[in-house]
Specification:
9 helices; alpha/beta; 9 strands
Length: 367
């Protein structure tokens, strides 16, 4: 095995697997400035409430002005926390997100941002369904409705791009460090992406939603290996089916009789990430609370026997071994490629260099 000093996990500063017996202190978010897109309802509103009670400075963005304003007024009265704000934000509009971040800096108690939660999302638009093409033989057939991709992917990319800029400029913050002391880390640089189990499981009938969430998972898996260069820690939550406004009547009818997750469980997972600055590059899937036991092969299985005392679980770590696998790939496949390069020797280098020069000259001549 590669030494810890040279392992990918050590280089990118990924933290160890989560210890679920260790509950973070909500007080660790006190006075921290947190941005939430899609914060007027669903998970976003629940995050806002939990962190407002803990004394955080929270700014939510949403296209629903009435719901956002009303929610902020209500929570200010309920919690006594006046450092809660709503700013109109259409995540599909680049300039709208730029304005959202700049306004948040003005509303911040310390002139910076500690955590950005890319939460805004929809299940689908109301236009032409991708999987039900009709009338495409017309002179000017309509394109499929890409609203889902615009919100769930383009919007998240916009949020991520802005977050990586502003988080590293957070006054008083230091690069993310899994060995820091949370009780003495007043400033943070944290990007939290919200995807879905549809980001790693197929969801028939919701191809664009599934594609958008797969993309967010892919974004996370890449960023957690690179955002350390900006001192930013990137984490991910993938909720299971949960009763939020995203689940319309049809979806709820389809899920009738099935176990579903709770908003409280998702909020608990998000708070674990947001409150504890030691958690770097981890992902959680959050689902229904079930009782499980460890099988003979070491895997968790449902506790079928009512006489067996199991363990309640609703939060599961996903993609925990990406970089162990990456190190294995480097030690094996890349070693083979390197050996093949050595066998080509100086002759191979000379041939390739001549080819590169010829290619450049030909491209210049054609231009």
């Amino acid at each position: 095995m590669a030494s810890s000093k040279r392992s990918t996990k050590a280089i990118i500063r990924q933290s160890p697997p989560l210890d679920f017996s260790n509950i973070p202190d909500d007080g660790w978010v006190k006075d921290k400035t947190i941005l939430i897109t899609g914060g007027a309802s669903g998970f976003g509103a629940a995050f806002l409430k939990r962190w407002a009670i803990a004394g955080a400075n929270v700014i939510i963005g949403d296209i629903n002005v009435q719901a956002g304003d009303q929610l902020i007024r209500s929570l200010r009265n309920e919690t006594g926390n006046l450092n809660l704000h709503f700013v109109h934000c259409d995540v599909t509009d680049w300039q709208s997100q730029v304005n959202f971040f700049k306004e948040a800096i003005k509303l911040s108690l310390h002139g910076g941002i500690d955590t950005v939660v890319a939460n805004a999302g929809i299940t689908g638009g109301g236009g032409v369904h991708l999987e039900k093409p009709e009338g495409l033989d017309a002179a000017n057939p309509p394109p499929p409705d890409l609203a889902t991709l615009n919100v769930n992917l383009t919007g998240v990319v916009y949020t991520t791009h802005l977050a990586l800029y502003w988080l590293q400029r957070n006054p008083g913050s230091a690069p993310a460090n899994p060995k820091c002391d949370p009780s003495h880390t007043s400033r943070d640089r944290h990007l939290l992406l919200i995807a879905s189990v549809a980001g790693f499981l197929p969801l028939p009938g919701f191809a664009l939603y599934g594609a958008s969430k797969h993309a967010v998972v892919g974004l996370y898996r890449c960023l957690r290996g690179t955002s350390f260069s900006n001192g930013v820690r990137t984490n991910l939550i993938c909720p299971y089916f949960t009763h939020t406004p995203l689940l319309n009547a049809g979806a709820r009818a389809i899920l009738a009789g099935s176990v579903v997750g709770t908003v409280d469980s998702v909020v608990e997972a998000a708070t674990r990430f947001t409150a504890d600055p030691r958690v770097v590059g981890r992902a959680l899937s959050v689902g229904p609370k079930v009782e499980v036991v460890e099988g003979a092969d070491g895997e968790w299985i449902l506790a079928e026997d009512h006489n067996t005392t199991g363990k309640e679980k609703d939060i599961w770590e996903v993609y925990p071994h990406d970089f162990e696998n990456n190190d294995h790939f480097q030690r094996t496949i890349i070693a083979i490629y390197n050996r093949a390069t050595e066998k080509r020797g100086w002759l191979g280098l000379a041939v390739d260099m001549a080819g590169a020069i010829f290619y450049g000259l030909r491209a210049r001549w054609r231009s």
